[in-house]
Amino acid sequence: MKTSVSVFGLLFFLSMSCGVLAHTPALPHRWIYLQTGLLPDAHRAKTMALLERIAAEGYNGVVFADYKFMRWDTLPSGYTKYWKELHDTCSRLKLDLIAAVMPMGYSNSLLSRDPHLAEGVPVRDAPFVIRKGILAPNESVPILNGGFEAFKNNTPLEWAFVDSPGEIAFRDTAVKSTGTASLRMQDVARYEPRHRHARVCQKLKLAPFRNYHVSVSVKTQDWDAEDTRIMALSADGRTLNYQTLPILRTMDWTRLDITFNTLDSAEVSLYLGTWAGASGTLWWDDVRVEPAGFVNVLRRTGTPLRITSNSGAIVYEEGRDFEAVHDPLTGMDPCAGDSTAWHTPPVIHILPGGRLQEGQRIRASYYHASVINEGSVACCMSDPKVYDILVEQAQQVRDHLHPDGYLMSHDEIRVQGWDESCARRGLTAAEILADNVGRCIDILRKADPGKPLFIWSDMFDPNHNARPSGFYYLVKGKGPWNGAWKGLPHDVTVINWQMNPNTRRDTLSHFSDLGNRQILAGYYDGDPRMITSWLKDAKGIPGVEGVMYTTWCGNFSRTREFLEAAK
């Protein structure tokens, strides 16, 4: 649902009373969603001014999310008094204060407590060798013509295909990063106005459940494209990586990196290009693929590490035969809870007196975290320590914020089900999620009995992320979240953000039939009058109690306009 957060706001929840909505049934909740911290002072003052304004406009609640809900032991001196100020301001303005907790999809704040609670993706029997006393990856990846040196006309040899050679794609000997040539792509929409594709692809024969690093040199000049990617695609059509590339409109040669795990695929199609090109020029050069080593390795009971002889007959011991395997940047790059998909792998030495010798070939099995988009990482919902942290969070938020209710932040859970914590339970991803929801509800009800609970819709919507078929990001299985709604009690209100107008009414009916009340949550960085279509779709469906104004740009200037449009 969210891939980036503005400095002080993300979403508006809004529902309107009979006095505001002259032509709709009573919608008692009129909320905004405010995702922000309360420092510095000028920012906090702006936040309080926003609350004053929206209360005057007719709002009666705020959903408040603060990263520091997970960092209470490291709060700046006196920070909790700002939470009290927020509470007192909301009380004076008669704004319900709803706290956003339980970050299951965008789990970085939770992982700041322990980065190794990230969901682990397996690496199995990866070949290593003892080289100069360290455990070094020992696998040659067969990338061919990665420097784009060899062409036939404007088609690079050894690559499976390139879109529109001689129109969009060209051999360029004047501009290159290394060698004698590069692959240039330009003026995509001019020659491919329908699909706007400009891609080059090579098929790689690899091993299942291995983690790889791809590095490419890129240069741009006035490049205008909404979707430029380095993408690994499995043999059965599954996208294996979701890292956002920092490509500027104009930039000199820059090396860009992604990582991907092959999962259960032995063949991977490596794509470079854009799926939504417009104009300008981009050059590719010097493509490299290598094993990723112990980047973002996870170390906990549910993500065991095993180093064996090449045959597997001998199991070597950590602390006896080799140093502790640890990546200091796992979940700590650039700060606690944050992750990068690629950085220099940790160096692991063999130990004197151990059984490992120079030149010896070994195998390593372990688990690593997978980073989605700009740094999002999901926690493992099967590890008991996650729930210890959630108990603490609920108690601290209750004691310091005294909210009127809680929004459970189960949203876009994009990696799950692979590590041993999950596998040994014998449950599907949907069953793990259903169990998790029940445990989160129990935690909140025990910490703060009687308070209303809310939850995002997408993970429980069969027309959204809980579809009955197909892959969902890096979650194990097909249709992995289908049926997760079986763990959703009827007295939890669903914040519904089904964007597709063709399925929205079905989604509304789905939750209504389950007995859940709903608040509509749409995108409003466009025309605020779009809320009228949401209200029409909800007509006649019991339990719809509000609507939600959403801004990705932190644009709070159209709240009054939105209310007027909803009348």
Task: Tell me about this structure.
With 567 residues, the chain is of the alpha/beta class. The protein has ten helices and 28 strands. The strands form seven sheets. It has an eight-stranded parallel beta sheet with strand order 1-2-3-22-24-26-27-28. A hairpin with a 2-residue loop joins β4 and β5.
CATH class type of the largest domain:
Alpha Beta
Q: What's the rounded overall pLDDT mean?
A: 92
Q: Regions with pLDDT < 50 over 5+ consecutive residues?
A: 1-25
CATH superfamily of the largest domain: Glycosidases
Sheet bearing the most strands, described? 8 strands, parallel
Helical content band: 10-25%
Strand content: 25-35%
Q: What is the correct CATH architecture of the largest domain?
A: Alpha-Beta Barrel
- Work out the helix count: 10
At the fold tier of CATH, the topology name of the largest domain is TIM Barrel
Number of domains: 2
Quickly give the structural class.
alpha/beta
Q: Give the total of beta strands.
A: 28
Largest beta sheet: what is the strand line-up? 1-2-3-22-24-26-27-28
